[in-house]
Specification:
The chain is of the alpha+beta class and 458 residues long. It contains 16 helices and 15 strands.
């Protein structure tokens, strides 16, 4: 949408006379965005940093604005901001960060790996990892667990098994060590108005370089082994084998660097969303026994003790609603950034050319225009009738438009199967009633989310 003479300038969130909102955004960006919408409306301007290196960011918080930026005018809002550049330099130019023809080529090569039929075939691998996890709880007679830590471990092992096949343990160990450190490094550099070049030998740069080296080495080793293996085409159904074999007359195939970049993106995006959804779903159920009872009843009725598969997803609507409500309250990607190419009007407010823009599922998912009593946990918000009555982008945990997450179906398949299997075995009671959260590349937590476990006989 081009600008009009009636469009106004976005209101600015008041802050420090010299540094603007920099301190508020560093300490609690999610809370700052919520306060800005509440006090100033659906399009707000933030300034951060001292004069001369001050950054300006526009926050767009309505469902309609999110749809305009991510879908309707997506070509005008690119992944060119400082945070995406830092992610690009840390994780490579894979599907998450690439643009233009690079992105289109990658998407065309990868898309056949994420058809519904292909993804449904991974249900057994997910179930096997859940069985291993609950078996460990049982063998250790666990009385309580940190559900966020445990679901991160489960989701990472599941995506590593599906991606690498048998090379799970080494990859998981390296990723568990590397990703949190790289996330903190990206966050620190993304917020810094003055960035030290990455090749300067500062302590932070040296630590990040060592993490990169270890992470790249394990990916490169597994990729090289897979390419050197004496396999006939189609002999192997892990994602890495399929990526190695991905080829078309138009787009060619992935070279070793491109394969590594896709692998890193799949590891990052492929476990974070699922881990966050499952962990907070279990924690919320542990705080709401009446909701947990309904979920248990549906699972017992539908599955009668057997292991669920892909064909069972439609028969578990309440379990799916629980997960969607957990994703509303705790979206794994709470903030999504873009940069405007041309000046644009959003909600009657001018977004200048070249401006950094964020849309925030964290805020839109709590917008009182779409959600009554938005902080309340209520899976019935996601009945088919309730969903049909809301704007499309009132809920967008997977992003939206042409850059929507390619792994949406995989994440939901894994989440429903895992939650159903875990609830077959256990009841949950929250020990930590509140879990402090923040935002880096994905949603972060600053405390445990422990739940007591009660083995079930049903």
């Amino acid at each position: 949408m081009t600008t009009t003479t009636t469009a106004t300038e976005a209101p600015r969130l008041p802050g420090h006379p010299l540094f603007g909102s920099m301190s508020d955004l560093r300490k609690d960006s999610l809370g700052t965005f919520l306060r800005a919408r509440r006090e100033l409306g659906d399009v707000v301007r933030f300034t951060a940093g001292p004069p001369g290196v001050r950054a300006t960011v526009y926050g767009v918080f309505s469902a309609e604005g999110a749809q305009q930026i991510l879908a309707g005018e997506s070509a005008n809002f690119r992944k060119d901001n400082a945070f995406y550049q830092e992610i690009r330099e840390s994780f490579g130019n894979g599907l998450l960060t690439s643009q233009d023809e690079d992105y289109l080529r990658q998407r065309r090569l990868v898309q056949p790996l994420f058809t519904k039929r292909r993804v449904d075939g991974y249900a057994a691998a997910v179930a096997a990892e859940v069985t291993t996890l609950t078996g460990e709880w049982e063998a250790g007679a666990a009385e309580s667990v940190d559900v966020l830590d445990e679901m991160t471990r489960l989701a990472l092992r599941a995506v590593a098994r599906i991606l690498f096949g048998t090379d799970v343990d080494t990859a998981v160990e390296i990723v568990e060590q590397s990703f949190p450190q790289l996330g903190a490094y990206v966050l620190s550099r993304g917020y810094s108005p003055l960035k030290v070049p990455r090749d300067w030998p500062t302590p932070g740069n040296r630590r990040a370089a060592a993490v990169h080296e270890a992470l790249y080495a394990v990916c490169d080793r597994i990729i090289a082994e897979r390419r050197a293996a004496d396999r006939a085409p189609g002999d192997g159904d892990d994602l890495l084998t399929l990526l190695v074999e991905a080829e078309s007359a138009e787009d060619g195939s992935f070279d070793a660097t491109e394969l590594r970049e896709q692998v890193l993106v799949f590891l990052l995006a492929g476990h974070e969303t699922t881990a966050t959804s499952l962990g907070f779903a279990l924690h919320l159920l542990g705080r709401h026994p009446e909701v947990q009872k309904r979920a248990h009843e549906e699972i017992d009725r539908v599955l009668a003790g057997r292991t669920p598969g892909a064909a069972d997803l439609d028969a578990l609507p309440y379990v799916t609603q629980v997960l969607k409500e957990a994703m509303r309250l705790f979206p794994a990607a709470p903030v999504i950034g873009r940069r405007a190419v041309a000046a644009t009007e959003v909600g009657g407010v001018v977004i200048p050319a070249g401006a950094d823009v964020i849309v925030a599922p964290w805020v839109t998912h709590r917008h009182p225009a779409y959600w009554e009593d938005p902080e309340r946990f209520d899976p019935d918000r996601f009945t088919p009738e309730a969903e049909a009555a809301r704007p499309r982008y009132a809920w967008f945990p997977f992003g939206g438009g042409p850059r929507a997450c390619i792994g949406q179906h995989f994440s939901m398949l894994e989440s429903v199967i895992a939650l159903a299997m875990i609830l077959q075995k256990y009841g949950f009671e929250a020990v930590d009633t509140e879990v402090p959260v923040g935002s880096a590349i994905t949603l972060t937590t600053a405390g445990p989310a422990r739940c007591r476990l009660t083995p079930r006989t049903a």
